[in-house]
Design brief:
Order of helices and strands of chain A: HEHEHEEEEHEEHHEHHHHH
Oligomer: heterodimer
Number of strands of chain A: 9
Shape of chain A: elongated
Number of helices of chain B: 15
CATH topology of the largest domain in chain B: Multidrug efflux transporter AcrB transmembrane fold
Number of domains of chain B: 3
Helix content of chain A: 55-70%
Number of helices of chain A: 11
CATH architecture of the largest domain in chain A: Up-down Bundle
Largest sheet of chain B: 4 strands, antiparallel
Number of domains of chain A: 2
CATH architecture of the largest domain in chain B: Up-down Bundle
Strand order of the largest sheet of chain B: 7-8-2-18
Largest sheet of chain A: 5 strands, mixed
CATH class of the largest domain in chain B: Mainly Alpha
Strand content of chain B: 15-25%
CATH superfamily of the largest domain in chain B: Multidrug efflux transporter AcrB transmembrane domain
Shape of chain B: elongated
Structural class of chain B: alpha+beta
Radius of gyration of chain A: 27 Å
Number of strands of chain B: 19
């Protein structure tokens, strides 16, 4: 048998302070950067580099037959009356640029009604592009090369107004939280509240760390990144459940063993699966980062970071939190035995899950 | 393992696989012919069966919002005018009525000189001006002030019906202009008043946007001017302030007057000159309410203003009721000026020489296309309120194809790497995993086709997550079998135990993800839903392919080796 791990016996929980320390440092670094950027805007950055989906604005993909330098293009757009346009050459396609423009405010139309500036940006950018020659006629020619007279072609437009971007932003936050709550409820139903909470806290931590990295490196956050974050949430909870399942099984097998050791044992037993699965997913995500193209890049980068931290946090965060929490409950139950006033509480809990013994959870010497 | 059991399993798997394959690459709605078995035939069928989203296929996606506040504002203002006119005509002691439309509240406020007549006024106004409880205007009186307030419930109902009406009108306009396979649907939550329009293959939505966006609210109005004969052309003013000053009403516009811009179109000349230079604005004073509005229009067509000319005009005719009203008015106002008011701008002013009944025209140097578009929007009726564009996503065909190509290339590379690893690491059993994985892909696509779901970029993310989960299920099972073998179990019982234990875990992980996907589906829209749908489908299929199929292959392997199995390639 060809094997990566064999009979490993690592005291994962013993290193919990180290792991949780790392997690806290990573989270603080990310959130700190986001806060710093939010407050002081170094180099004009914001807390997060939000895409048009969430900030509003316009992105135009344009392709030239004879691409001008990015600076010249920026200057031309500036002359057309749009300040702070971001010109981003598309790496894997020659002559193609992304022109990103912030929301253009409100324009007063002829009849005095204000109209959201969704349309304004495109018209102005087109005006700037027209200084390089004519656009390929979209009604006649399918590609830029087909039109002999054209100098450029607008390949795609994305424009989002302010009401819509706000809705999308709220919705993204709402769905992420809803997904987490859904998982919490199901895990609580299948295992225990503490397990669910531990898994969800671990996932939340991964999401925060990933978002922190997005803030540090100023990678754009758009709708597909939210899809990536949700994918991540799925993978991550998946990992936690595999370990929890093993813990549940081992607790029945080794009734004498305390939760601390059972958790370590379960993490070690499932370690090869954790590493292989994560490794395989990692491989396909790397393939996506390399070949997926510009549109998928923020998505695949989010997944890449998430897979690394998701694997790490299952072992380093979910396990310790769950053990710590169970231990707190066990301690509280012990106290309540001595305190007759709380006896009702104890019996109510005890009636919930009769098969689970909470005595002797954790080693006293290693109790935090 | 029993032979019969194996046979039964194989038959089920065979049938499901064949159906799945046929759904994915077979022709739909016709009999298969020889061409369907060639590679190009398969490719064509595949492309036809899978509905690609606009982000992959190319096309235009527009989200419009009906500006419902303008709708209420206008409704309240019209009601205020109607109430005042009705009360004054009946000789009731009314000083003035005005509309108050701030902070989401819509009120008609009427000042009266004799509060004892409040009841009488209320009765009259309810009949003549639609200000009544049935529609949702609640009445209250304090001293000399009478107030009608539009209730929240009525606002919601009216907003809903206005949005629906706008959608119908937009539908008519799109069909008239001949967009291929458009989909039009309500968008967003209950109170968002948004409409989503998707036009596959549309590369330049500018014309459609303009066509849909113009409110096209037509009114024929009386332009206040000294009668012709004294001055040769209607009275205009060079600024809004000047026009208001001419009314001698202390800087305010009385309820029965409006000050609107008068724009003489110079479209044809403007196209050659600099388009950014607006023609000078003039202002005119018109009487309110209008004589008749666009609801009375029977037809509208664009015609050349004279034979061979390059400018166009719109000729319209009126319905019977409108024509009668119009005829009465023109008969009584010979030598006055009449204006054609379109979206609160006077487009042309005509001098009334004699009584006119049901014909009229809008002149003003229109180009052919703008005259056609205007005639079309007039025919389709006026939008109840202006719309604004909230989202525009247009993807050219080459951009969409690039996304597909790079997405497919990335998935294939990923899949190859995964397959290679499984074959090297798990050797013989790796084949199991590969078969299960491929079957999973086929059945998931079949599921997408059967449910008519649309494949978008986030949907591809869902597929990648599914591949990950599918591989994970196999890894879980294989690792467990290896563990059981190590602990000294016989091969058949190790396989049995491995599947048994891993199955519990697989169910738990799958159900957790499905539960959260259901939340995503419930709370998300558009792309997030696409993600959730592919994911749920993929996971359900995976329970079949990774557990049932993989297990059957193991049963078959073991049964071939006979009673005593010494080794298993895992």
């Amino acid at each position: 048998m060809f094997q990566i791990f064999h009979d490993i016996n690592i005291d994962w929980l013993g290193k919990r302070r180290f792991f949780i320390g790392i997690s806290i440092v990573l989270m603080l670094a990310g959130m700190g950067t986001a806060f710093y950027r939010h407050k002081f805007h170094p180099n004009g950055t914001e807390a997060f580099n939000l895409g048009v989906d969430f900030k509003g604005g316009t992105v135009i993909t344009v392709r030239f037959k004879n691409p001008p330098p990015a600076d010249a293009l920026r200057a031309a757009i500036n002359r057309a009356g749009i300040k702070d346009a971001v010109i981003q050459p598309v790496l894997d396609k020659k002559g193609e640029f992304l022109v990103k423009v912030a929301h253009q405010g409100f324009e007063e139309s002829a009849n005095g009604e204000t109209q959201a500036g969704v349309d304004a940006a495109r018209a102005k950018i087109k005006q700037a592009l027209d200084t390089y020659g004519a656009e390929a006629d979209p009604n006649v020619y399918k590609t830029l090369e087909d039109d002999p007279k054209a100098a450029y072609k607008i390949e795609g437009t994305e424009a989002v107004g302010q009401v819509a971007s706000k809705q999308l932003r709220n919705q993204a936050i709402a769905v992420t939280i809803a997904a987490l709550i859904g998982m919490l409820l199901f895990i609580a139903f299948r295992f225990e509240w503490t397990y669910g909470a531990a898994a969800v806290i671990a996932v939340f931590h991964t999401v925060l760390v990933t978002l922190g990295l997005f803030s540090i490196f100023q990678i754009e956050i758009n709708l597909t990144v939210i899809a990536a974050l949700l994918t991540l949430v799925g993978f991550d909870v998946n990992d936690s459940i595999v370990i929890f399942d093993r813990i549940r099984e081992n607790r029945k097998l080794y009734r004498r063993m305390n939760l601390y050791d059972v958790t370590n044992l379960s993490i070690n037993q499932t370690l090869s699966r954790t590493v292989i699965t994560s490794g395989l997913v990692f491989l396909s995500v790397v393939a996506m980062v390399l070949l997926g193209g510009e549109t998928l890049r923020p998505f695949s980068l989010a997944l890449l970071m998430g897979i690394i931290f998701g694997t790490y946090d299952t072992i380093a965060v979910a396990g310790p939190i769950m053990v710590w929490w169970e231990k707190r409950i066990a301690a509280a139950n012990k106290v309540s035995v001595m305190n007759p006033r709380d006896a009702g509480l104890k019996s109510a809990r005890g009636a919930g899950r009769g098969d689970r013994t909470r005595e002797g959870v954790g080693k006293p010497s290693q109790a935090a | 393992m029993k032979k019969r059991n194996l046979l039964q399993r194989s038959i089920i798997i065979g049938i499901v696989t064949l159906i799945g394959l046929y759904v994915v690459i077979g022709p739909h709605g016709r009999r298969p012919h020889a061409r369907d078995f060639t590679l190009t035939g398969i490719k064509e069928n595949l492309a036809q069966n899978i509905h690609l989203g606009l982000d992959l296929r190319g096309g235009s996606h527009l989200v419009m919002r009906v500006k419902i506040e303008s709708f209420f504002k206008k409704l309240t203002e019209e009601n205020a005018i109607a109430a005042q006119n009705a009360a004054k005509e009946a000789g009731l002691p009314v000083k003035e009525a005005r509309a108050e439309t701030t902070g989401g509240n819509y009120l008609v406020v009427m000042e009266v000189t004799d509060p004892s007549k409040a009841h009488e006024i209320r009765e009259l106004v309810a009949k003549k001006a639609d200000l009544n409880d049935q529609i949702g205007w609640t009445f209250s009186a304090s001293g000399n002030t009478l107030t009608w307030t539009l209730t929240g419930a009525a606002q919601r109902t009216l907003a809903e019906s206005a949005t629906d009406q706008a959608m119908k009108i937009i539908d008519t306009r799109i069909n008239a202009v001949g967009v291929a396979e458009p989909t039009l649907a309500r968008h967003g939550g209950q109170n968002s008043h948004e409409i989503l329009l998707q036009m596959p293959g549309m590369q330049d939505p500018e014309r459609v946007k303009q066509l849909l966006g113009s409110a096209s609210h037509l009114e024929l109005v009386h332009v206040i001017s000294p009668p012709a004969g004294q001055v040769s052309s209607p009275q205009t003013y060079s600024s809004e302030a000047e026009a208001i000053a001419s009314l001698n009403s202390g800087g305010k516009v009385p309820t029965n007057r409006r000050v609107v811009p008068y724009i003489e179109r110079s479209e044809l000349a403007g196209q050659q000159a600099n388009p950014n230079v607006q023609p000078p604005k003039k202002w005119v004073v018109i009487e309110s309410p209008s004589i008749i509005d666009g609801a009375q229009l029977r037809s509208a067509t664009a015609n050349q203003s004279r034979a061979g000319a390059d400018d166009y005009e719109i000729d319209f005719s009126l319905k019977q009721v409108g024509a009668q009203k119009f005829g009465e008015w023109t008969g009584a106002n010979i030598n006055e000026y009449m204006g054609v008011l379109l979206d609160d701008q006077v487009k042309s002013i005509a001098f009334i020489k004699g009584q006119i009944f049901d014909q009229g025209n809008i002149t003003g140097r229109f180009s052919k296309q703008s005259a056609d578009d205007l005639a079309l929007t007039l025919r389709s009726g006026a939008l109840p309120a202006p719309i604004e564009y909230q989202e525009e996503r247009t993807v050219g065909p080459s951009l969409g194809q690039d996304s597909i190509r790079s997405g497919v290339r990335a998935s294939l590379l990923g899949l190859t790497l995964v397959v290679l690893f499984m074959l090297i690491y798990y050797r013989g059993s790796g084949i199991n995993a590969v078969v299960a994985l491929l079957l999973n892909m086929v059945l998931m696509l079949a599921g997408l086709i059967i449910f008519g779901a649309t494949l978008t970029l986030p949907g591809i993310a869902g597929i990648i997550l599914t591949i990950g989960m599918a591989v994970d299920s196999n890894v879980l099972i294989f690792e467990r079998i290896r563990e059981e073998i190590r602990s000294g179990k016989t091969i058949p019982s190790a396989v049995e135990q491995g599947f048994g234990h891993a199955f519990v875990t697989i169910i738990d992980t799958h159900v957790t993800t499905i539960v959260s996907s259901l939340f995503l589906y419930a709370f998300g829209a558009g792309p997030i839903r696409g993600f959730a749908v592919t994911l749920v489908l993929g996971l359900l299929v995976n329970l079949f392919s990774a557990v049932y199929v993989s297990r059957t292959i193991f049963i078959w392997l073991l049964s071939r080796k006979g009673r005593r199995v010494e080794s298993l390639s895992i």
